[in-house]
Design brief:
By secondary structure, the protein is an alpha/beta fold. 41% of the residues lie in helices and 17% in strands. It has 2 domains: 88 residues, 3-Layer(aba) Sandwich (Rossmann fold); 130 residues, 3-Layer(aba) Sandwich (Rossmann fold), CATH 3.40.50. It has 10 helices and 11 strands.
Length: 286
């Protein structure tokens, strides 16, 4: 069993990005600039946005974080997005999800200029991705693909089961694995007997959002397991008051796997790297 250490792999990619940024600057080209909009004071979102700003600093990007109160109206938020669309200095924009209930995530996503949509959520980028054309790929699936590439895990001809069909992970992940010549099965809340499918899988990508959903008896010997889930579970005995759990029962499952990602420190750092790669790509396209 080998643990796929997302922190280590992300560090390697970030070194490459840093060198590319230095080359861009030396050639008199612009410094990549990533902007993030944060609405409200959700703890997990604040932590994530702060980590993204730190990543930008590490690789030499400029970064801007715009913070708004949860009471901001949808109209006001869309106006802020438009301002960034019109700002030639900003190359990439992310609006941190989830948003307050009175704001339509779909409307906000579709308002972002798709040339700056480094989260890869705009319908234009989604369409280009499904056609296999140059696009900003959703950051988490992109990060997972980079993880496979860097570790040299062969994908062609493998049976991949994706658990979850969200627009952010499940659907794009299945499309990208198809492009890597995998045979792909997508399981979800309406799938009958998910275990029957996962037992046949060479690769399982769990993005279901249920802590420790995937158990050892659901996975065949030697499978590769990628855990996308991250949920805060109450743990009064922990100084923080909570523990971070993935979608995979790691301790019982790891001995059966050829490769497995931990939580935290697996997919999370790779998601942030996907965002950096998209922002760098936005500058290169100019």
């Amino acid at each position: 069993m080998e643990t796929l250490n997302g922190n280590k792999i992300a560090k390697l990619i970030k070194e490459d990005i840093k060198n590319e940024v230095i080359a861009l600057k030396n050639a008199g080209k612009k410094t990549p600039h990533l902007a993030a909009i944060l609405v409200g004071a959700d703890g997990a979102s604040m932590t994530y946005v702060n980590a993204k700003a730190k990543d930008c600093e590490e690789v030499g990007f400029d970064s801007t974080v715009l913070r708004f109160d949860a009471s901001i109206t949808e109209e006001e938020l869309l106006a802020e997005v438009e301002k960034i669309n019109q700002n030639p200095d900003i190359d990439g924009l992310i609006v941190q999800l989830p948003l307050p209930k009175h704001i339509s995530e779909k409307k906000v996503t579709q308002t972002i200029d798709y040339h700056k949509d480094v989260d890869g959520f705009h319908p234009m980028n989604v369409g280009l991705m499904f056609k296999g054309l140059p696009a900003f790929l959703p950051a988490t699936p992109y990060g997972i693909i980079k993880m496979f590439e860097i570790t040299g895990i062969p994908l062609s001809g493998k049976h991949c089961v994706v658990i979850g069909r969200s627009d952010i992970v499940g659907k794009p992940m299945s499309a990208l694995m198809l492009q890597k010549n995998c045979t792909v099965t997508v399981c979800h809340s309406r799938t009958e007997d998910i275990k029957k499918h996962t037992l046949q899988a060479d690769i399982i990508i769990a993005a279901v959002g249920i802590p420790e959903y995937l158990k050892a008896d659901m996975v065949k010997e030697g499978a590769i397991v990628i855990d996308v889930g991250i949920t805060r579970v109450d743990a009064p005995e922990n100084p923080k008051g909570y523990l971070l759990k993935g979608d995979v029962a790691y301790d019982e499952l790891a001995p059966k796997c050829s490769y497995i990602t931990p939580v935290p420190g697996g997919v999370g750092p790779m998601t942030r790297v996907g965002l950096l790669l998209n922002t760098l790509d936005a500058v290169k396209r100019k």
